[in-house]
C-alpha cells in the first residue's frame, strides 16, 4: 500500500523515480480506508534528504500511511528553507490536540552537547512527554534514541574518543521478539555518531530490553517492555551515499575524519560504496508498523 504525502513535497518525485508507491492527498481522499497516522519529528539538518530516507522505508509497508512532518520552533534551521518548513511542517502547538498511531524521532549531529544545552531541549522534552499519551508507539533513531533513553529513563550518553562511522555487523539477542521477525542472525547497519550508551546502564532498567547489539558498534536496538518506545542507535534509514557525503563534508572542513569502516570496497574512498543494509531497514520499519503500531492502535484514534 502507498504512503500519503502532500502533493508538492519534493521527496515525492524522487520516490516515484524509485518505483516507491506514493499517493498524493487528492487521490487518497477518494479511498475509503483509515490509514495509519505517522508523525516524523525531523531534527536532521538536511531535512529534505531525511524525508526521502524515511518515506522510502515507510512506503515499503503493506499498510496505507498518512505522514505528517514536525519540526521544532525553538531552533532555526540553517540548511532547510523557511518556505519548505512553512509549507510542509507543523510544530507541536499545531498537533498537540491530535492522536497519532506512530511517531519517528530522527537523529541530530549534536551528540557532543549536553542535552540541556541543546537549544530545543525543552521543546523536545515537551514532545516526548506528549507522546506518552498521544502516540501508540515511538521509534527513536541515533541521537533521538539517546535523547529518548535519557528523557524517559535517565540513561546518559558518553562521548567516544573517536567517531563511530561505517557499516557494522549486528546480532540478535532474542529472535522471538516481534520487531526482529524475519531478521537474519547477522545483519548490517550504518552508524555515524560521536557518543554511545552503555549496556550496563540499560540493564539496570527493568522496563527496558536490549534486543540487538554489535561487537564493535555496541548496543543497537532497545525496546520498552510495553512496546511504546523503540530505540535504535544507528541509521538504518541512510542510503548508499549518506556516509560518503558526511565524510567528504568533514574532510572539506579540515576535520581529518577517520575513513568509515567496512564502507568503501577495499577501504578505497575512490570506489563506489554498496548498499548492503536495505533488507534489514525495510524489515525494521515494517515490523514496527505492523506489530507495535497497527496491531496495537485503536481504530478510532
Automatic annotation (TrEMBL):
<feature type="active site" description="Acyl-thioester intermediate">
    <location>
        <position position="142"/>
    </location>
</feature>
<comment type="pathway">
    <text>Amino-acid biosynthesis; L-methionine biosynthesis via de novo pathway; O-acetyl-L-homoserine from L-homoserine: step 1/1.</text>
</comment>
<protein>
    <recommendedName>
        <fullName>Homoserine O-acetyltransferase</fullName>
        <ecNumber>2.3.1.31</ecNumber>
    </recommendedName>
</protein>
<feature type="binding site">
    <location>
        <position position="249"/>
    </location>
    <ligand>
        <name>substrate</name>
    </ligand>
</feature>
<feature type="active site">
    <location>
        <position position="237"/>
    </location>
</feature>
<keyword id="KW-0808">Transferase</keyword>
<feature type="binding site">
    <location>
        <position position="192"/>
    </location>
    <ligand>
        <name>substrate</name>
    </ligand>
</feature>
<comment type="similarity">
    <text>Belongs to the MetA family.</text>
</comment>
<dbReference type="InterPro" id="IPR005697">
    <property type="entry name" value="HST_MetA"/>
</dbReference>
<feature type="binding site">
    <location>
        <position position="163"/>
    </location>
    <ligand>
        <name>substrate</name>
    </ligand>
</feature>
<dbReference type="GO" id="GO:0005737">
    <property type="term" value="C:cytoplasm"/>
</dbReference>
<comment type="function">
    <text>Transfers an acetyl group from acetyl-CoA to L-homoserine, forming acetyl-L-homoserine.</text>
</comment>
<dbReference type="InterPro" id="IPR033752">
    <property type="entry name" value="MetA_family"/>
</dbReference>
<feature type="active site" description="Proton acceptor">
    <location>
        <position position="235"/>
    </location>
</feature>
<keyword id="KW-0028">Amino-acid biosynthesis</keyword>
<keyword id="KW-0012">Acyltransferase</keyword>
<dbReference type="GO" id="GO:0008899">
    <property type="term" value="F:homoserine O-succinyltransferase activity"/>
</dbReference>
<feature type="site" description="Important for substrate specificity">
    <location>
        <position position="192"/>
    </location>
</feature>
<dbReference type="Pfam" id="PF04204">
    <property type="entry name" value="HTS"/>
</dbReference>
<keyword id="KW-0486">Methionine biosynthesis</keyword>
<keyword id="KW-0963">Cytoplasm</keyword>
<dbReference type="GO" id="GO:0019281">
    <property type="term" value="P:L-methionine biosynthetic process from homoserine via O-succinyl-L-homoserine and cystathionine"/>
</dbReference>
<feature type="site" description="Important for acyl-CoA specificity">
    <location>
        <position position="111"/>
    </location>
</feature>
<dbReference type="GO" id="GO:0004414">
    <property type="term" value="F:homoserine O-acetyltransferase activity"/>
</dbReference>
<dbReference type="InterPro" id="IPR029062">
    <property type="entry name" value="Class_I_gatase-like"/>
</dbReference>
